[in-house]
Specification:
The complex is a heterodimer of chains A (457) and B (189). Chain A has 457 residues and is an alpha/beta fold. Helices cover 44% and strands 18% of the residues of chain A. Chain A has 15 helices and 13 strands. In chain A, strands 1, 2, 3, 4, 5, 6, 7, 8, 9, 10 and 13 form an 11-stranded mixed beta sheet that branches. Chain A has a two-stranded antiparallel ribbon with strand order 11-12. In chain A, a hairpin with a 6-residue loop joins strand 11 and strand 12. In chain A, helix 6 packs parallel to helix 7. Chain B has 189 residues and is of the alpha+beta class. Helix content of chain B is 29%, strand content 39%. In chain B, helix 1 packs across helix 2 and helix 3 packs antiparallel against helix 4. Classes of the chains: A alpha/beta (457), B alpha+beta (189). At the A-B interface, helix 1, helix 3 and helix 9 of A face strand 5, strand 6, strand 7, strand 8 and helix 5 of B.
């Protein structure tokens, strides 16, 4: 027999704390579809995705219904298109992008990721074609996401790719100027990208992954926030180690839910289960914010001195709880701090409490990085590249994933507002201190060598 | 132990206080009644306990057992009820495969709440395996009822859910129906 507490706390997590399974992502390998004939490739692509993912949305809805936990987003990730479509020209790759978008639409998923290239050590012909195709591909489609790994701890940072992608981001922003550069919200630049990420825009199916796999992304900033509030109301002398314990236990519960639902969806689709990505991923809703957790912890706002320490503790506690809950924890698994997607973070940035340098500092201890950061439209490609390079360096040296999802909003200046809509939210454009001062350094190009793996400090 | 000796079910009700179970079980032991199963709960400060016992002696009559218990608690306002149990329980109505779900309602207390919800359950052939009413929450105006139920796999879950939500709306309750696994997964290592 269940105890009353077991039933009531689970209901509370669902009803008032925004607990959901944020995303179920079906990973599909496309390597066996490779051909030099683009028309044939498009046909195969469409039939593979619409065949394998035909019941994905229905199954997710049914499983969500049985357990009373909504699966909010259903998504697909595919093998990196720069590899599968290496023989194609950029024009042909734009066509395949549109096929991917069409397939996503036909099966009813909201995003499809994998318009991706892994270029940490160099740019092959397929990679160059794909990057060239990105601005048009992301403008002509609505559900496609692109990601690029430009750095790893083993290879260093490919600075040529960084600059090329900065220019690509500028071009993508220009093409979607009427939507505040929306295309850039679907493009992430990564260091040490994991192969099994279910969250967009970073999701793609890695080369070492099986033919098909279900990865699950669970989120729970609201649940963590409420658990902390309850614990601190009950005992106002709670110390940080005790607070960390509360976060750990909450992360455990959330991860267990993700794994249960992921395994059930995988079973019904007859596909292996991959990982649970336990990331505190906010939405632009009150009560579902990572920024609010900082306030519960006693900081006036995210960005105030102490924020980096608080985030480090939060991130670590989340990982500890998740690691105990499941042996299949993967992806990013930490806290996201996407500026526009989190009402509280967006507000702190708008009020000037959260600056670009502070955001960068925060990313050294959290999951992803400079995420959904709206920048002035006249930020040069070199400055964008320099910001990306800084972020990549944090990931490479600290042997962790970092990313940049930057949006130079065309025609707008710092202090003005950018609107992306839906989950992507809105944000005030923040200034870039020292903008324009990195041109010479960035134009040196080449590769930042891989860091020494011993003498760690 | 003779196969002919009938098992008995004994129910005990009365004002709760320390020592009831100890004395009941002591009296049963004195009479040579082996307790095979037991459960107890407290409802509004009232004790309610049930014991399934197997007398060792064939000759022990149930009137004897009942009298011994009543004499043991004379003047203490405790009520006993005793019923013989058939050796072979009557077969349960065929129900086929089921899935365990947990149904909760939260809302203001009112007449016919349990009857309304359980009426829907009965209509769909859903068996209740555990029920708790008036679970305490922070908000005293809200009554929480928790039903653990076995839902036949053959039930059209969509229709079942719609019927339940319709009834919940009538009764001004927020209702949720979730597979039991989710509660165990979250709370039990």
């Amino acid at each position: 027999m269940l105890t009353e507490k077991e039933v009531l706390t689970t209901l509370e997590m669902l009803r008032n704390e925004h607990l959901d399974v944020r995303t179920v992502t079906l990973g599909l390998s496309l390597f066996d579809l490779a051909t030099h004939d683009v028309g044939r490739f498009q046909d195969r692509l469409l039939s593979r995705i619409t065949g394998m993912a035909a019941s994905l949305v229905d199954v997710c809805d049914e499983v969500g219904d049985i357990y009373g936990i909504p699966v909010v987003n259903k998504r697909i990730s595919v093998s990196p298109m720069a590899v599968v479509g290496a023989p194609f020209s950029s024009r042909e790759l734009v066509q395949t992008a549109m096929t991917l978008d069409q397939a996503a639409q036909e099966v009813g998923v909201d995003f499809i990721g994998g318009f991706s290239a892994l270029v940490e050590k160099g740019l092959a012909r397929g990679d160059l074609s794909l990057i060239e195709a990105v601005p048009e591909a992301l403008t002509a489609t609505s559900r496609l996401c692109a990601s690029f790994n430009v750095a790893t701890t083993a290879a260093g940072i490919n600075m040529d790719a960084v600059l090329l992608l900065a220019k690509t981001i500028k071009a993508a922003a220009a093409r979607t100027a009427d939507q505040d550069g929306l295309a850039c919200a679907k493009l992430g630049v990564f260091a040490n990208i994991p192969q099994d990420v279910p969250f967009m825009a970073g999701a793609y199916l890695g080369v070492g992954e099986p033919n098909a796999v279900i990865n699950v992304g669970v989120s729970g900033p609201g649940v963590v926030k409420r658990a902390l509030e309850r614990a601190m109301e009950a005992d106002d002398h709670l110390a940080l180690d005790e607070i960390s314990e509360v976060i750990k236990r909450t992360a455990f519960k959330v991860t267990r839910i993700g794994e249960l639902i992921g395994r059930e969806v995988a079973k019904r689709l007859n596909v292996p289960f991959g990982v649970v990505d336990l990331s505190l991923a906010p939405t632009p809703n009150v009560g579902d914010s990572v920024g609010e957790i900082f306030q519960v912890l006693g900081l006036a706002h995210i960005g105030a001195p102490g924020s980096t320490a608080a985030l480090a503790m939060l991130n670590d506690a989340v990982k500890k709880g998740g690691a105990f809950a499941s042996s299949s924890v993967g992806g990013f698994s930490g806290a996201f701090i996407p500026v526009s997607e989190d009402l509280n973070i967006a507000q702190a940035a708008a009020e000037g409490h959260l600056t670009l340098p502070k955001l960068e500092a925060l990313t050294s201890v959290c999951s992803v990085g400079l995420d959904m950061v709206a920048l002035p439209g006249d930020t040069s490609a070199e400055t964008l590249a320099a910001i990306i390079a800084d972020e990549m360096a944090i990931g490479v040296i600290n042997r962790k994933t970092t990313a940049a999802r930057l949006i130079p909003v065309p025609g707008k200046k710092a202090g003005e507002k950018a609107f992306f809509g839906g989950l992507l939210g809105e944000a005030v454009i923040i200034p870039v201190p020292g903008s324009g001062g990195s041109d010479r350094f960035i134009n040196l190009g080449g590769r930042v060598p891989a860091p020494l793996q011993s003498l760690g400090n | 132990m003779s196969n002919h000796t009938k098992k008995m079910m004994i129910a005990v009700f009365g004002q709760d206080r320390p020592g009831i179970v100890a004395r009941v079980s002591g009296l049963l032991a004195e009479m040579g009644c082996n307790i095979e199963d037991a459960t107890q709960t407290i409802l509004h400060d009232r004790f309610a306990g049930m014991f399934v016992v197997q007398p060792v002696q064939e000759s022990l009559a149930r009137e004897q057992v009942l009298r011994a218990l009543e004499d043991g608690f004379q003047g203490e306002e405790l009520t006993f009820w005793l019923s013989p149990m058939e050796e072979a329980a009557p077969p349960k109505p065929a129900q086929g495969a089921t899935d365990p779900f947990v149904l909760t309602t939260i809302g203001p207390d009112q007449l016919g709440l349990v009857a309304g919800v359980t009426g829907v359950l009965a209509r769909f052939g859903v068996n209740i395996t555990a029920l708790r009413a008036n679970v305490k929450t922070e908000d005293v105006s809200q009554w929480v009822m928790i039903y653990e139920v076995d839902v036949p796999k053959s039930v059209d879950r969509q229709q079942f859910r719609e019927a339940l939500h319709g009834k919940a709306q009538e009764l001004d309750q927020r209702l949720s129906l979730q597979h039991r696994d989710i509660f165990e997964t979250v709370h039990r290592v």
